[in-house]
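Technical note accompanying the year-one report. For the benefit of new consortium partners, we illustrate the data format agreed upon in the data management plan: each record pairs a sequence with a structure-token string. No post-processing was applied to the example shown here.
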Amino acid sequence: MNNPLISPGLGVFVWMLVSFGILAFILAKWGWPMLLKSLKERENAIADSLNAAEKAREEMKLLKADNEELLRQAKQERDAMLSNARMTSEKIIEEARVRATEEADRIVESARENINYEKLKAMHDLKNQIANLSIEIAEKLIKMELSDKQKADTLIQKELENAHLN
């Protein structure tokens, strides 16, 4: 138990106290201010980092809100564009349907006119053929009737009498 570190003598104790005092003085004069300055700088850097992080968080919230607003506006614009496109396509389809109906009506009317024209033409041709056939038949009958002189005179007399009556 005579270990000098565990139970130091008065001389060692005094020298330890003087050494400690010198060390404390040196540290207080040059070490502590540097250490406190470093700690203050670190504290300021941490505070600045926290402030920057808080600002960044706030900016992120603003950007997120702006992004959500832009997204909402984009969706509204997309919906409006789709609605306009739908209305435009419906309008185009309706116009095409109306034009097709008008064209079909025009074609039907043209076909009716053509049918009427062809019908009138056929009736005219038929009348002309009937008239030609009637003339041919009349010619043949007259030739047959006029072949006999007495019958021819009787026919001429009858026709002259009918001509005076009219």
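Partners are asked to follow this layout when depositing records. Residues 50-165 form one domain.
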